[in-house]
Structures are given as C-alpha cells and as structure tokens.
Amino acid sequence: MNNKKLTKEKRPTLTEENKTLKDSMKSLQDENTNLSQDFHRIDKENAVMNEKLSGLGWRDFCKNIGWLGIGSAITAGIGKQYKEGLLIAIVSGFFFMTFSLYDSFNQKKQKFAEKV
Asked: DSSP letter at 81?
C-alpha cells in the first residue's frame, strides 16, 4: 500500500508532449481560420446593409422621378406643348443627372473606405 502512494505518475515523454502541443496548435489555427472567414462574411454583409440603409431609397426614388419626368416631357412634346415639355425635360434631367453623379462618386469613395 505504501508503494502506491510513493510512486509518482510518469510525466509524458518529450515526443508525446510535442505531439499534443502540435495537435492543439493545429486545432487553434483551424479555429482561427474559421473565425476569420466568419468575420469576413459578416463584414461583407454589414457593408452591404450600411449601403442599403445610407440612402433609404431616396436616390433611387429621385432617379425614377427623373425618368418619369423625361417620359412626361416626351409626351408633352408629342402633344405639341413644347415649352412645358422642355421645362419638364430640363428639371427631370437635372434630377436624374444629379443623383446619378452622386451615386457614381459615392461608390468610388466607398470602395476606398471599406475593403470588402
């Protein structure tokens, strides 16, 4: 009975310890890779959601109003109301071009700001 108390547990050999350390390091690296991929996916989703929420549809709405106005101007021109058609075409063209230019500059600026 005394012999059992006096014997100590054997410490693992260096090769066994090295193997367990390598296995644990590999599992940690795999976990790190998986977390990195998840973070990248979530970051992309956040960038898309931020872009959708930034305009709340106002830019698209104003561009569609521009298209509607250009269609109305063509209709007025066909109906021989040239002054009204020209006025509607100028205002609608201004709306359409302003928001189209804003979108193009905003997209270029965002590509440099957020790498997705």
From this structure: -
